[in-house]
């Protein structure tokens, strides 16, 4: 599937069976502007994204909830859930350079859920 924009830029998306994105490319004339490739597990969840020279990874627990994200910058984000499946903790482990100190992420976020599922 391709989308052509008024400025001549074209974004093409290739799909695997089951409508899973396999690859997305954006080009202008003959120049490649951006390319992404997607990996999926047997349950059809995204487990990896390759963008140019950067790779991000995703891992899920046995309840099919996002448990771990590894960013292209080397940061790791961990998630924890309560018995009802509500996300209760988000921990960010920042890796890499001193510039990471300027990121606006909080190292840990905690949530409490009421019976009506509001925070």
Describe the structure.
With 119 residues, the protein is mainly beta. The protein has two domains: 1-52, no CATH class; 56-97. The protein is 0% helix and 54% strand. It contains no helices and ten strands. The protein has a ten-stranded antiparallel beta sheet, with no helix packed on it. A hairpin with a 5-residue loop joins strand 6 and strand 7. It is elongated. The N and C termini lie far apart (40 Å). The relative contact order is 0.10.
Task: Please give the structural blueprint.
Blueprint: E1 2-4, E2 9-16, E3 20-28, E4 31-40, E5 46-51, E6 54-60, E7 66-70, E8 76-81, E9 87-93, E10 108-110
Antiparallel strand pairs: 1-2, 2-3, 3-4, 4-5, 5-6, 6-7, 7-8, 8-9, 9-10
The span between the termini is 40 Å
Largest beta sheet, briefly?
10 strands, antiparallel
Alpha carbon gyration radius:
18 Å
Count of alpha/pi helices = 0
Instruction: Catalogue the unreliable spans.
Output: 97-106
Mean pLDDT equals 83
Count the beta strands.
Answer: 10
Key structural traits:
mainly beta, 10 strands, 2 domains, 119 residues, ten-stranded antiparallel β-sheet
Concise description?
This protein has strands spanning 2-4, 9-16, 20-28, 31-40, 46-51, 54-60, 66-70, 76-81, 87-93, 108-110. It is an all-beta fold and 119 residues long. Mean pLDDT is 83; it is low at 97-106.
